[in-house]
Fold this protein.
Amino acid sequence: MNALTGKKILLGVTGGIAAYKAAELVRQLRGAGAEVRVIMTRAATEFVTPLTFQSLSGHPVHLDLLDAAEESAMGHIHLARWAEVVLIAPASADVMARLRAGLADDLLTTVCLAATAPLVLAPAMNQAMWLNLATQDNVAVLKARGVCLLGPAEGVQACGETGPGRLLEPAAIVAALASRSGAGSLAGLRILISAGPTREAIDPVRYLSNRSSGKMGYALAQSAVMQGATVVLVSGPTALVPPSGVEVAQVQSAADMYEAVLARAGHADIYIGAAAVADYAPETAPHKIKKDASSLTLNLVKTPDILAAVAALTASRPFTVGFAAETQSLETSAQGKLLGKSLDMVAANQVGAGVGFEVDDNALYVCWPGGETRLPTAPKSKLATQLLTLIADRYHAQHPVKNS
């Protein structure tokens, strides 16, 4: 994180329950060596006091556009010129709409309009607000103007609903800012990630699948791009919004995923097989099977092994990471997969009712030749960052010249 040493970061905090996370963000930014000054909207002060940010940043908090002491020296212009990065976290739907319109009706929007420094937004809002067409239109316009968006993440929200709209974890935001300065641990690397389930057709109407939501793979893609990597995501069918800045290839079946991954693996530095690929697929009937008999027998055929095929590449073999979803003998199964498929690393998690699949938290047992560790239960976005740190360490240990 030393790329942030001495970096002048102006943090805007807007109203919303996620404002409490901005306090930890200030702490981590200063820990990374950055100098931080804070602007709070009036709504933000309803959630966290200015004194909190003053204590953490070491500077008075800026609140009002028409503050007599500030404006006697054109304070908003001074702040705009001081900043090397303007970061708004959390960025509410309201402030994004006002930035899109070019309004300057409070200190924060006025500074943004006057600043020449890069503008970075970390959105946080209710999932319905994020998915609203008006918000998505605002996002598209802001991106077209060169504004960088970090997140949002998916998961359970303070209101009790689930979906996209959670503020990224402070560590992920700090990592993203560092990568923008060329110091992300994955900067310059090409990462290929497979995610989600596959669907294996029984007939033109029905299919076999599994309970994978794709959340872990999507979180890995989001975190990898924030750490400076060029990311390609090969995704089975999910209900997730693709991460910003990631190239996405949508597939359906295990055969589709095999073809898409193998076509790209030779161009990747790292491959992470986070998808829950079907091990067997039925022989597909050409027409809808009628409900005539009291029972039905399906003939299942083994699908191609994507992980083993990538690990067996002789030319341009990427650093290959596999996932293992297990209901028992977690460590033994992970170690067996590591050795049996000649992988560089395996991340294994327990699955079952309410564990692993279709939830926002997870825990991982990670092993590699000569080493192992455990990543305790945490949001998948945080786990993704932790796992990528392990992957980056092992990758760079194997490629010291290329990445020195």
Observations:
- The radius of gyration is 23 Å.
- DSSP finds 14 helices and 19 strands in the chain.
- The longest helix spans residues 380-398.
- Residues 368 and 403 are 20 Å apart (CA to CA).
